[in-house]
């Protein structure tokens, strides 16, 4: 019952989605700490129909960029994103534990109610036999 509840509870599903979102944000924010490199390669080939000669032109380029983090902004953003990710992990764990506790309490209440019902039926049968 607990496994079914954990798999189908919307609060747990939302908490898991929040973890995925926070993890992705941390990955993006953490990437700003490293240089970026972009590369491009292009090639053009042409042939003249008149004389049958061909030409080929190739170009390649690499662009690298890096923003200096003089005041620690990128590190602070990365640290904040990591803390958000960890907080969402703890929130999800808390949501799971709360759900398990609620299910356990409901089962114990049901067992106690069934026991009280059986006792009430025995008391009623005993009272009917006494009359």
TrEMBL record:
Highest taxon of source: Bacteria
Membrane topology, record value: Lipid-anchor
MF-aspect GO terms: efflux transmembrane transporter activity
SUPFAM superfamilies, A to Z: Outer membrane efflux proteins (OEP) (SSF56954)
Listed InterPro entries: MdtP/NodT-like (IPR010131), OMP_efflux (IPR003423)
Major subcellular location class: membrane
Cross-referenced Gene3D superfamilies: Outer membrane efflux proteins (OEP)
Subcellular location: Cell outer membrane
GO CC list: cell outer membrane
Protein name: TolC family protein
Upper lineage: Bacteria, Pseudomonadati, Pseudomonadota, Gammaproteobacteria, Enterobacterales
């Amino acid at each position: 019952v607990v496994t079914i509840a954990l798999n189908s509870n919307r609060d747990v599903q939302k908490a898991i989605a929040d973890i995925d979102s926070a993890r992705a944000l941390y990955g993006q924010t953490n990437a700003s700490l490293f240089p970026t490199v972009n590369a491009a390669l292009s090639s053009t080939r042409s042939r003249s129909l008149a004389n049958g000669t061909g030409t080929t032109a190739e170009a390649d380029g690499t662009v690298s960029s890096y923003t200096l983090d003089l005041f620690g902004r990128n590190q602070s953003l990365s640290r904040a994103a990591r803390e958000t990710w960890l907080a969402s992990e703890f929130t999800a764990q808390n949501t799971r534990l709360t759900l398990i506790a609620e299910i356990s309490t409901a089962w114990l209440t049901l067992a106690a109610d069934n026991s009280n019902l059986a006792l009430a039926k025995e008391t009623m049968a005993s009272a009917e036999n006494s009359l």
